[in-house]
From TrEMBL:
GO terms for molecular function: odorant binding. It comes from Ooceraea biroi. One of its GO terms (biological process) is sensory perception of smell. It is found in: Secreted. This is ObirObp11.
Amino acid sequence: MARENLIFICASLIIMQLVIVSSDDNIDWTTIHDELRKLAGNLRKKCTGETGATVDLLEEAEWGEFPDDDPDSKTKLGCYLRCVMEKGGVMKKDGTINFKLLSKMTPQAFKQVGAEMLDECRDATTGSDNCDIAYNFNKCMYNANPVAFLVI
């Protein structure tokens, strides 16, 4: 039961990167992202520890700075993203991304923007290993909607 709850929470947090982009200028996206990270608990700490990814690297990715020209940083970021996705239950051990689960877990208010982002990134699921697949998928998600994108 605890594992199911953890998977649900982690997957929900990944889905929350699909936050709807609103025309309301009063939305404080920084606060929303900070609250989502708090809900993730130790997931960030655990995955940074396992992969060697730094908070700076994660923050840069959130701003669209993906380290394509730095193989070491690219691997660390990709493996961090893989860690979060696997622990969240949305990436299988074989690297397959469970789009059905991602879509199903998307809160109703975010269904449209989430579906658009996921549809745009269905083909961005290739790579030499699971870290590379997670990197390519998340980079696509950023490009699909930079405002809503979040690195847990």
